[in-house]
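Field: COMPLEX_INPUT
Field: COMPONENT_COUNT = two
Field: RESIDUE_TOTAL = 712
Field: MODE = joint
Values follow.
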Amino acid sequence: MLCRVADDLYWTARYVERGIAVSRLIDVTRHLELDVGTEVSDFWGPLVGAIGLSAEDVSFFLLSDEKNPDSLVSSVRHARELARGIRESISSEMWEELNTLYQSLALPGAQRRAQGDSLSFQRLVRERLGLDEDKFMLTFQSRFGVAEWLTPYTAETVKALAQRGIKNLAVVMPGFTADCLETLEEIAVENAEIFRHNGGENFAALPCLNDSDAGMTVIHHVATRELAGWV
Amino acid sequence: MIAQRSPLAAYDPTAFWDEMFSAPGVVRPHYAALARRLETLSAQEVTRRQRAADLSFQARGITFAVNQDPSGLEKIMPFDLVPRIILPEEWERIERGLEQRVRALNLFLHDVYHEQKILGSGLIPPELVLGARGYRREVRSVEPPLGVYTHVVGSDLVRDHRGEFYVLEDNLRVPSGVSYVVENRRVLKRVWPQIFTDYPIRPVEGYPQDLLSVLREVAPPIADTATVVLLTPGVHNSAFFEHAFLAKAMGIEMVQGSDLFVDDATVYMRTTSGRQRVDVIYRRVDDDFIDPLAFRRDSFLGVPGLLATYRMGRVSLANALGTGVADDKAIYAYVPTIIKFYLGEDEIIPNVKTYIAADPSERTYILEHIAELVVKSVNASGGYGMLIGPHASKADREEYRRRIEADPRGYIAQPTLALSRHPSWSDGSLEGRHVDLRPYVLFGKEIRVTPGGLTRVALRAGSLVVNSSQGGGAKDTWVLG
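Field: COMPLEX_OUTPUT
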């Protein structure tokens, strides 16, 4: 192996590790914050103190500030740049993983594109079911990555709805064609609990397409169409 | 013959040679099966497959950096889903024509660096050859293994309004683009596999293995098992993806100049287990930058002492040094003469008529007809340094007039060609766009032409410039078996 390749491999790994460390800081602090709920808390205090910024800035600074060489976005960019230079020496999967992660975090418009897709889904469903914005709303679950990921967040919305006196709530997860265990745990267990804990009564997590014969027909159709010419 | 309202019904092939249509509504026979597939495709379906293709290029980082783009972002080359189809008999002629051309050009290169018989023949002005910027006195009398100078050639072919193929230019230095030949095929198979069932298509994915064989064949005789490496200028080079792609596919190291050094007339690479001898360098670095001791002193991309080692025959370079003299655009005009001189044959694929500004009477013609001609700088590539007379502004034409008068040896001119067109997707409908074809020729013990090539498309309506750096895209190119 070339000395340069060995060096760049080492630093690729270092930058990925640094990115993981930063995102863990944020992840842990957010979880603590959510557990405590509405009580005033100062979990961000130590981080704010260490960095010398306001609590609002801190997650931006740590996650998406390109001027901060240690932010998640910077770490991923460095790791991806190094991996690009040695892509012939690493597995294609490792390169693609880093490359797509970088693109989802850093490329202009990545967030807006994600939001655009979801918003058009929301509009279509509303039109079909004849529901207004109060009855059918869009929230975002995944909060990995960029500081201000797409809002409103699911957990916060569910809590607020229950506190407003909403008794019945159904949640659909359009990002999945088949039920995802992790998401089910988050929605059907965690969020159901948040809802009931705050005064809600009936909570339903609607199953994905795999749960019905009609849904399976759709999946079957798509799979056959895409595999035509191969099998 | 074509259903109403299908994307094909509205297609107008116009007066240009159209690769798919022989007349409005009349599809050429070898495109019939593809036409049937196209008719069943809705606009949404096309958009969906197009998106899948773009995503695939983006995720795998099949991108190029655009020179002079300050944002430094990499772009994907726009990919058009409609493949270009070449008949076996058309291909057979292209193959023979390229083989003839490459053989003659290598004899020419050997001659101008050794006996120089052609310079004494009076057929080609000696000052044109010896004064060419690509002529390297440094490699006079150097004997490359097997006498081969151009191990990899990518010649650009175009078709005129009668469908006749011409060679527009030869790329004999470090031709790029072959990774797109392989990747475009791979992506099209992924996003639109159905169409592959209708045709017997010759595969292109053997290219990297063929290239590796060629590189091994030209190893210095001193090496028993040759160590082959690919020398890249680094991640900032616009073709960096291709360098990584080829190195990985061939299973060889991709090195940068700083990874190599010369000691005791041997080239070594620095590895984690000490130095390792290098026998063959597939170099993607131009002559100018390859050895700061011999050529440009400010180059950080090369290897000090490489030229001396090469001259001793202790390392092979592919392509050899000094091939630029034969793809100088003024020398290009003499390729038919060169073929006749060395092989005693007439050229199989003709040249485009070329006026050399260095010649006084041809210069007068160029200056008088600049509005009808395409003017090209003899050493530039990538669609830079050219003027398309009919499309240029008056100020631009004046500018080129001045440049030609100041440096006649630096320019040639050619008639503006009515390049053939091919249906391509544009905003949900099929429209004719100008195309060219760059096949790749490998030369070691024998000459191999990869059955396929890069079809580049000028995606802007009416544009004649197909270079990716100038907004061109690409198509998969099928040679039928």
